[in-house]
Specification:
The protein is mostly helical. The protein has one domain: Growth Hormone, Chain: A (Up-down Bundle), CATH 1.20.1250. It has 6 helices and no strands. The protein is elongated, with a radius of gyration of 24 Å.
Length: 188
């Protein structure tokens, strides 16, 4: 979206470059709003469902952008994309912490952001390949929906890990020097 929204709007739809620039700026503002809102709603609702809902919205936005030539619709779709992107990013970070804890948070985040980066490089290239073909940007944006649908499915199928069993010290430890009282009925 960040790379292809302006060419879609100017070359693909014939809108003025200034209008396309405004759409990108608006998308960035709504992304910021989404990030702030996630801080408020992220701890009150299921983050996995929040992220899946964002993927549904982003998939719908790609379809709308592929099919619509209406300036208001395209502009609104760009704003909704920014909002969904802003909501999903912090929710994904919180899911990582909830599912994997903080002990390996850096490693988990590094690996998962590596895959996100591959998508951020591969996605625009994929859209570019399709945009140069006979279907133009609509086919490119529709092809990108495959990635958002895959993300949606991933959020829906992933389940929280089972809680860890608490580690219990042996009940009849002797000679530890801890000064602990023996449990009733145990030989001390």
């Amino acid at each position: 979206m960040n790379l292809h929204l302006v060419p879609l709007m100017t070359h693909g739809r014939g809108f003025d470059l200034a209008i396309a620039g405004l759409a990108v700026a608006g998308m960035s503002v709504t992304q910021l709003v989404g990030q702030l809102v996630t801080g408020i709603v992220g701890d009150r609702f299921d983050k996995r469902r929040l992220a899946a809902g964002c993927m549904v919205l982003q998939t719908a936005v790609l379809v709308v952008l592929a099919l619509s030539s209406n300036l208001v619709v395209v502009f609104a779709a760009a704003m909704l994309h920014g909002l969904a992107w802003g909501l999903r990013g912090p929710a994904m970070n919180a899911i990582r912490a909830d599912y994997f804890g903080t002990r390996a948070f850096g490693t988990i985040t590094g690996w998962s952001m590596g895959f996100v980066s591959l998508g951020m490089v591969g996605g625009p290239l994929l859209v570019s390949v399709f945009a140069e073909g006979p279907g133009g940007y609509p086919v490119g944006f529709l092809a990108a929906t495959a990635a958002t649908v895959a993300g949606l499915v991933a959020f829906l199928v992933v389940r929280p890990p089972r809680p860890h069993e608490p580690v219990v010290a042996p009940a009849a430890a002797t000679g530890t020097g801890c000064g602990c009282a023996a449990a009733p009925g145990s030989a001390a």
